[in-house]
Amino acid sequence: MSLFDFRERQVLVTGGAQGIGRALVEGFARAGAQVRIADLQAQTAAALAADLTAQGLAVEAAGATDLAVPDSAAALLAGLDRLDVVVHNAAFFPLTDFAAITPALLERTLAVNLAACFWLAQAATPLMRRQGGGSLLITSSVTGPRFAYPGLAHYAASKAGVNGFIRAAALELAADQIRVNGVEPGMIRTPALDNLGDDANAAHIASGVPLGRLGEPQDIAAAMLFLASDAARYITGQTLVVDGGAGLAEVRPAP
To answer: pTM value?
Structure first.
């Protein structure tokens, strides 16, 4: 079997209806996996599942899923007899000035981005333990663990916490051969990027990336497939930065 062959493997992707999540769903499905989509946007997820199923791929939508609700993680996994890969990609990050962050906004940000990691891992662990192992993957970010961005203090705090979770969970679950890793995307061309400004702003951001472009969702999916694959079987507790080299320059030179 090829190292990147996911035939006969069961994969769950949260936040899989669009953007990076859609690329993850397509990537795993085209590599042979049976993929389940969990997303709050139920209609979009169902349409994606129908489209990929019509192409001969094994994809299903789980229905509307709000990962801010702790019990939703267990409900997603109820009745499954196997689960090889969980990718927690769902995120909440409305652009909000620091002074305007409310308790409700902070609570939901931490619930979706960070707390859901705990509930998904707890729900998946018994299944993975019985089958001899598995892979937990989380979409983190360079925002928080490495950099800051105006209006995203709540998001940055949640993603810094995600990286701490990855290391701690990897240590505790290693004896069960459950690997825990993540990817830290830089600026990726997704619908969510629209929250950060117009096309001119996106072009300005891209001009500061050493590789000369914004990332594409497929760039993140490729990194995730690697971390979930047998090629990464000795990697756990790590995050892989995928940012086109944007974090390499301490001070950008004048144009």
So the answer is: 0.94
